[in-house]
Structure prediction request, 89 residues.
Amino acid sequence: MDTRDSVDDEGPVRPGENHHDRFRRLAEKRVIRTIKDIRLIGNLGNRNNYEYTADEVDKIFRALEKELKLARTKFDSRSRADDDIDFSL
Prediction:
């Protein structure tokens, strides 16, 4: 699965838009979208609607924390982080 910049609504550089402007535009959209998705994951904690084990919860948060650390390393260095998504319950 390719997870690179392929979201349709973000598009290429707009006319008159520099690299910093594009970064800010895309970062805002992606962070807002990610926060909404994290909130949806939090909704899974409602035991009235879902049944889960502590191990499953640990797997979810380990995967999220791993990806967040990998994303951070892309900002801290020029090294290429792993693009593979490896997650299952």
About this structure: The chain has two domains: 13-51, 52-89. The mean pLDDT is 86. The chain has two helices and no strands. Residues 13-51 form one domain.
